Amino acid sequence: MAEPYRDFPELVLHCVQGRDYRFNIHDLGDDVTITAIHGGAIEPMTSEVAMIIAGEDHNLYDLRGMRAGDNSALRVPAQRFDEMRLRTLLKRSRTALSVLGVPGEEPVVHLGGKNRRLRAVLEEQLVEAGFAVRGPHGPGAAHHPRRFVNWPSAGGVQMELSLALRRTMTRAPLEGFQWEDPAGWTDRFNALVRATRGALRDEAALARDDLGEALERFEAATRAFPAELRSSYHHHGAHGGENGDGRDDGHHHVRSNGHGTGDEH
Q1: Whether 94 contacts 68, CB under 8 Å
Q2: If you average pLDDT over residues 9-29, what whole number do you get?
Q3: Residues near 253 by Cβ (< 8 Å), separated by ≥ 6?
Q4: Which of 15, 200, 211, 221 has its CA 20 to 30 Å from the CA of residue 123?
Q5: Cβ distance 229 to 236 under 8 Å?
Q6: Closest CA to 49 of 139, 147, 174, 144
Q7: 23-37, 107-121, 211-225: least confidently modelled range
Q8: Are 158 and 225 within 8 A, CB to CB?
Q9: 31 within a domain of the structure (yes/no)
Q10: Helix boundaries (H) for 224-257
C-alpha cells in the first residue's frame, strides 16, 4: 500500500482530478461549513454523512477518492490539509464540522475541536440517540488553531466515525462504492445525521443568545457611565468635528515635519 501524500500540493502533483479524486463543493453563504476531506473510497461513508448533514442549509466541502483501488494513498492527514477553496469557505464561517473516518472495531463517535459549545451539544444529542461518544481518536491536538476545522471564528468540531460504526450505517459492504446507494443506508445513518443536524441548530441558537446577552451587557455598562461622561462623548466625539458639531473650531493644526518642529497648514 502506498504511503499517504504529505499535503494537498503533493496530492495534486501526483494525481489527476477527475480520475483519482473529485470535489463536491457547495458554497451557500452559510456561517456553518461541513467537510469530508477523506471522502469517497478514502474513508467510505464520510462523504455521504457530510453531504446529508449539510443538506440545503450549510456549506459543503467534500473531497472524494474515486480510484478503483488504493485510495488510502489520497488520505492527506487532517493536521496538514490546506486547500484554497476550503480556506476561503472556513475563513467566512462561524463554525465547522469535519467528518472523518478512523479505524476501530467498536461503533464509536470520537469528538474533538475548538468549539466547546458545539462539541457539548453534539455529544448530548448523539448520546441521546444511542451512540457511544469518546474523545479524539488520534494523538494529534484536535483543538489546535492551525487544524483547518478550527479556522472559523468560533472554531469547529472534528467528528471521527469508527470503521465499525460506519459498517452499521449501510447494508452494503464498504468496498466497490456500493455504500453510495442511499437505498442501503440504515436507521443508524439517519439517526446520526438527525442528531448532528439538531446539534447544529441548537448551537446556532445558543450562539445567537450569547450575542444578545453580550449586547445587553454592553448597553447596561454604557448606561452605568456617569451622565457627564456620556454627555461629553455625545458632544465632543459623536459628530466628528473638533467642537462636536462637525465644523472646524478655527484653530490651526500643527503636523510634524520630521525634525521636531511643526508646520502650519
Answers
A1: no
A2: 96
A3: 264, 265
A4: 211
A5: no
A6: 174
A7: 211-225
A8: no
A9: yes
A10: 227-236
Domain extent for 111: 8-212
Cell numbers at 210, concatenated: 450569547
For the domain that residue 23 is a member of, what is the CATH number? 3.40.630.100
Q: Amino acid identity of 163?
A: L
Q: Lowest mean pLDDT: which of 6-15, 122-131, 211-220? A: 211-220
Q: To which H or E segment does residue 25 belong?
A: strand 21-26
CA atoms within 13 A on the CB side of 220: 6
Share of the chain above pLDDT 90, in %: 72
- Rounded to whole angstroms, how far apart are CA atoms 177 and 102? 18
Distance CA 114, CA 151 (A): 9
Give the count of domains, the chain.
1
d(CA 64, CA 58) in angstroms, rounded, equals 19
- CA torsion, ordered 182, 83, 75, 195, to nearest 10 deg: -40
Read off the pTM: 0.80
